[in-house]
Amino acid sequence: MLLAAVAPRSFAEAAKPTILVVGDSLSAEYGLARGSGWVALLEQRLGREKIPATVVNASISGDTTSGGRSRLPALLKQHRPTHVVIELGGNDALRGLPLAMTRENLTAMTRAARAAGARVLIVGMQVPPNYGRRYGDDFAALFADVAKAEQAALVPFLLEGVADAPNADALFQPDRIHPTAQAHPRMLDNVWAVLATLLKH
Questions:
Q1: How far apart, in whole angstroms, are the C-alpha atoms of residue 24 and residue 2?
Q2: CA–CA distances in Å: residue 186 to residues 38, 39, 162
Q3: Under a CB-based contact definition with an 8 Å cutoff, are residues 159 and 179 in contact?
Q4: What is the pLDDT of residues 134-160, one digit of tens each?
């Protein structure tokens, strides 16, 4: 009877999810009070949902997909995540880096995470209209293309309901790039809509 009682707890501990978030300033609480960004809100939501998961926020402001790709192997080895959330690409666009490079880096990161046994969630981004419609369309599409090709989950646009909200100006910091704390619950909702399903499998 004692063994039967202990075994389920041991299994639950072994199966406890670890969610690794590899992102840029949108996930690193740039310009925000500590604990008010969407990743911190994710930890709180997991607690409310009674999901015993650990969240590791390895996001760095200003990071590109190249930076994330170079950092990921050590992060996978250190944290052994069950789920990897990749929120990178926006700075690639801001720096005018080739779309092919962004695509290649996202693909490599997804493959590395899957090879380490993790489920992958790619978080898409879009650029402002002044980048040109064709570039904007191609940039937005590459996240979906990589997710489909690599069988990863996808959040099409992290800032849906923020950047395109009627009161969008009020939801961004003065730089008009980084959302305010008021916007981060909606950003979490966008991620949670997909991540919650991923955590059940």
A1: 47
A2: 8, 12, 7
A3: yes
A4: 999 999 999 999 999 999 999 999 999
Asked whether residue 4 is domain-assigned, the answer is no
Residue 178 tokens read as 């980084």
pLDDT of 184 higher than 70: yes
Residue 1 counted as domain residue: no
Query: Does 13 fall in a domain?
Result: no
Q: Which residue type, as a one-letter code, is found at position 186? A: R
Q: Quick check: is 17 in a domain? A: no
d(CA 158, CA 114): 22
Instruction: Give the domain extent around 54.
Output: 23-199
In this structure, are residues 97 and 56 in contact, taking their beta carbons and an 8 Å threshold? no
Q: Could you give the residue numbers annotated as active site?
A: 25, 175, 178
Domains in the chain, number: 1
End-to-end Cα distance, the chain: 29
The CATH number covering residue 159 comes to 3.40.50.1110
pTM of the model: 0.92
